[in-house]
Amino acid sequence: METVRKTRVAILISGRGSNMVSLIEAAEAPDFPAEIVLVLANRPEAAGLARASAAGIPARAIDHRAYPDRASFDAALQAELAAENIELVCLAGFMRIFTPGFVEAWSGRMLNIHPSLLPLFRGTHTHEQALAAGVRLHGCTVHYVVPELDAGPIVAQAAVPVHPGDDADSLAARVIVEEHRLYPAALALVAGGRARLDEGRVAFDEAVPRAQGALLSLAV
């Protein structure tokens, strides 16, 4: 049987790495089109580093506090990614803003998951924003990273209902379940060549359905 070549992926984290774990677990499947070969954190105390190491994946910290500016930190990050021949980067709770040059260097090759239905509720405290706005649907979005924060072309979204009596914690708990399902599915689309960035929009292979059930809705 011919071995399918897998896209080499690095995951960047800042904390516990729950989305990182969902990606690692999905990538263990023989037919998954990506392999997680590196996990990097900008904080040495990030709990996700131990979780990645326990899964047998090289995990290292590049402490952003050790660098005088964003450009020098991004250069150190780039050196690590280049050394491992990384082809695709997944941000999973990575709480750093990149320099435009770094983002441009990874244009079409860097994904992020954001806990809202973009373009609604960019930035932080998205669940509080959703409750304050009174929306009936909330959710999460996987998108390509561009220099403007949370503004990149959308690969996939998953929606959850907002229930009467919800607070930020209960809503977040409902959304994180969908994040853990959505991110691996979106990564599989991109790593497998079924979704790609094309002139600022996401283009899908004709074989990709417009919606794959209630849990995964593809932006088309």
TrEMBL record:
Enzyme kind, highest EC tier: transferase
UniProt xrefs under InterPro entries: Formyl_transf_N, Formyl_transf_N_sf, GART
E.C. number: 2.1.2.2
Pathway: Purine metabolism; IMP biosynthesis via de novo pathway; N(2)-formyl-N(1)-(5-phospho-D-ribosyl)glycinamide from N(1)-(5-phospho-D-ribosyl)glycinamide (10-formyl THF route): step 1/1
Active site: 114 (proton donor)
A GO molecular-function descriptor: phosphoribosylglycinamide formyltransferase activity
Protein residues bound to N(1)-(5-phospho-beta-D-ribosyl)glycinamide: 17-19
Reaction equations catalysed: N(1)-(5-phospho-beta-D-ribosyl)glycinamide + (6R)-10-formyltetrahydrofolate = N(2)-formyl-N(1)-(5-phospho-beta-D-ribosyl)glycinamide + (6S)-5,6,7,8-tetrahydrofolate + H(+)
Record site feature (Raises pKa of active site His), residues: 150
Coiled coil: none
UniProt superkingdom: Bacteria
Domain Formyl transferase N-terminal: residue ranges: 8-187
Keyword annotations of the record: Purine biosynthesis, Transferase
UniProt entry tagged with the keyword Nucleotide-binding: no
Sequence positions that bind (6R)-10-formyltetrahydrofolate: 70, 112
One GO location term (cellular component): cytosol
GO biological process, one term: 'de novo' IMP biosynthetic process
Function recorded in the entry: Catalyzes the transfer of a formyl group from 10-formyltetrahydrofolate to 5-phospho-ribosyl-glycinamide (GAR), producing 5-phospho-ribosyl-N-formylglycinamide (FGAR) and tetrahydrofolate.
Family per similarity comment: Belongs to the GART family.
NCBIfam families cross-referenced by the UniProt entry: PurN
Name the UniProt record assigns to this protein: Phosphoribosylglycinamide formyltransferase
Source organism per UniProt: Methylobacterium durans
